[in-house]
Amino acid sequence: MIEATIDTASVSRQLSVIGRLDKEILPEIMEDVASMLYDRVQFYPPQLPNQRYVRTGTYRRSVYQDSMPIRNGHRAEAGSTGAIQNGRRYDAYLKDGRHQAAIHAGRWFTMTDDAENTMPELEELLGEALNRMVANDS
C-alpha cells in the first residue's frame, strides 16, 4: 500500500496568498509593467543610412501613460490597468502592426511587440511577489 500525506495547512496558506495578490500586489506590479512598456514604446530605432528626415522627438514626447480603474465590471476594486497612448495621427504608421508603413516594418517595434517583450518581466515580478507573500505567511 502507498500512502501520501498532504499538508493542507500549507496548501491553504498558499491559496490565501493568491487570493490577496490582486488587492495587495497586482496594482503595484501593473504600474511597474506599464512603466516598462511606456519606456519601450518611446524607443526610437537607429536612423537609416543617409536618412534625410530630421527627427524632432515629437513622437517620443507625445507618448503618455494613463492609469485608470478597471471598468469591465469584473473585480473593479482590485486595482488598475495602465494605458500607454499616443495622440499623434501618424502613430499607426509607426507602431500598429496592421497599419505600419513599410519603411518602419522590421525597424520599429509594434505595440504588440512591445507588450510581448514586457511579458518576461511581468512573469518575474509576479513570481517574486508570490514567493515573498508565501514566505511572509510561513
Q: Please, how many helices?
A: 5
Adjacency order of strands in the biggest sheet: 1-2
Helix content: 40-55%
Care to count the β-strands?
A: 2
Q: Write down the domain tally.
A: 1
Q: What summary fits the major beta sheet? A: 2 strands, antiparallel
Query: Overall 3D geometry?
Result: elongated
Intertermini distance: 32 Å
Unreliable spans:
68-80
Query: For the CA atoms, what is the radius of gyration?
Result: 21 Å
What is the average of the pLDDT values? 75
Q: Beta fraction of the residues?
A: 5-15%
From N to C, what is the helix and strand string? HHHEEHH
Query: What class would the helix/strand composition place it in?
Result: mainly alpha
What do these coordinates show?
This protein is mainly alpha-helical and 138 residues long. The chain is 51% helix and 10% strand. The chain has a two-stranded antiparallel sheet with strand order 1-2. The chain starts with 7 loop residues before the first helix and ends with a helix. Residues 68-80 have low confidence and may be disordered.
Ordered list of secondary-structure elements with their pairings:
Layout (H helix, E strand, L loop, with lengths): L7 H17 L1 H16 L16 H5 E7 L10 E7 L4 H5 L15 H27 L1
Antiparallel strand pairs: 1-2
Helix pairs in contact: 1-5, 2-5
